[in-house]
Write a sequence for this structure.
């Protein structure tokens, strides 16, 4: 199972070995900080996408 957290302007879903972060374009620096924190925990960015004013970043952690 996973856990959904909303931190400031970030909507974060944390699974066992994956993380999906969704935010808006205007929150770019908050997104960069969050992704950097997960990378420091051993996660790797697998994909990112943007559409309109939304950005999504998907990270996974090797088992």
């Amino acid at each position: 199972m996973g856990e959904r957290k909303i931190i400031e302007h970030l909507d974060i879903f944390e699974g066992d070995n994956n993380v999906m972060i969704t935010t808006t374009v205007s929150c770019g620096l908050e997104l960069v900080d969050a992704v950097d924190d997960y990378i420091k925990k051993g996660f790797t960015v697998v994909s990112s996408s943007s559409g309109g004013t939304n950005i999504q970043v998907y990270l996974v952690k090797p088992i």
Notes: The first helix runs from residue 28 to 40. The helical segments are 28-40. The chain has a mean pLDDT of 92. The CA atoms of residues 8 and 30 lie 8 Å apart.
